[in-house]
TrEMBL record:
PANTHER family linked: METHYLTRANSFERASE (PTHR42912), N6-ADENOSINE-METHYLTRANSFERASE TMT1A (PTHR42912:SF93)
InterPro entries: Methyltransf_11, Methyltransf_Superfamily, SAM-dependent_MTases_sf, UbiE/COQ5_MeTrFase_CS
A single GO BP: methylation
Entries under SUPFAM superfamilies matching the protein: S-adenosyl-L-methionine-dependent methyltransferases (SSF53335)
Ranges of residues in domain Methyltransferase type: 50-144
Descriptive protein name: Methyltransferase domain-containing protein
Example of a GO MF term: S-adenosylmethionine-dependent methyltransferase activity
UniProt source species: Terrimicrobium sacchariphilum
Keywords from the named record: Methyltransferase, S-adenosyl-L-methionine, Transferase
Protein origin, superkingdom: Bacteria
Length: 260
């Protein structure tokens, strides 16, 4: 793996520390969103899949369960170790490869599908990730991206969420609006199949803090942002307090594109 830039190092170090939280009990272990997005896609016999920034490996294991030959990649060694263990527990065979999301060590047209789930907001250059995904896809192959997002045309809400996420987890990069993702995909030469957001409830801000090991100082700063959030933010994210817990609804992007 090439020398990492500062953003990549921050992501690697953050998830190396927090990798144990991303196992089979994590909220992302529920892969119904992946199944729904790939529901209409049929893969040829012997199809190969690349899951980028695999994290807990849940998407990779779903694809392996569908009979694909899966390569799970990540920038964090501990994540790959945990993914391999979880695969073994389920009797599934996957390959794990350590590399960054902006440069892949694979030949052109090597995969039938490239997936990335709830990770692109950490990438130092998500547009370069798209370019690399296109390069390694076979003609007729698919790119699937699921990630947190922000509403199109809501700059105040976007900036507020960026501040919150950066305080909660300094390795956070930026959530990207659906219109921007769609433009990048089209400009890369892919055909857009689906690009939409669905509301996904974040159950509790305290849980979110624990997941990222947020410092007490930054927790206080986030709470100040919550208390002073403008109406556009409260409307866009349905920010509220329920049973004494701060909750909000994340716009979750589901993107599927096909290489002609």
């Amino acid at each position: 793996m090439a020398a990492l830039n500062d953003a990549q190092k921050a992501s690697r170090d953050q998830f190396q520390k927090q990798s144990a939280r991303y196992g089979k009990s994590h909220i992302l272990a529920n892969v119904e969103d992946v199944a729904a997005l790939l529901d209409g896609v049929s893969f040829p016999a012997g199809a190969r899949a690349l899951d980028v920034a695999t994290g807990g490996g849940h998407t990779a294991l779903y694809l392996a369960g569908r009979g694909l030959s899966v390569t799970a990649s990540d920038i964090t060694p501990a994540m790959l170790e945990n993914t391999a263990k979880l695969a073994a527990e389920r009797g599934l065979s996957i390959e794990t490869v350590l590399h960054e999301a902006e440069r892949f060590p694979y030949q052109d047209a090597a995969f039938d599908v490239v997936t990335c789930r709830v990770a692109a907001h950490h990438f130092s250059d998500p547009r370069q990730f798209v370019a690399e995904a296109v390069r390694v896809l076979k003609p007729g192959g698919y790119l699937m991206v699921i990630d947190g997002s922000v509403p199109d045309g809501e700059p105040e809400a976007e900036e507020w969420l960026h501040q919150v996420e950066k305080l909660r987890d300094p390795s956070h990069g930026r959530f990207i609006a659906p219109a921007v993702w769609a433009r990048w995909v089209r400009e890369s030469g892919l055909e857009l199949v689906e690009c939409a957001t669905t509301p996904f409830k974040q159950p509790d801000l305290e849980w979110y803090f624990q997941t990222a090991a947020t410092s007490e100082e930054n927790r206080a700063r986030v709470m100040a942002l919550v208390e002073s959030a403008p109406e556009s933010v409260r409307r866009a994210f349905r920010l509220a307090v329920e049973d004494g817990k701060v909750v909000w609804w994340w716009p979750r992007l589901g993107l599927l594109a096909r290489k002609p």
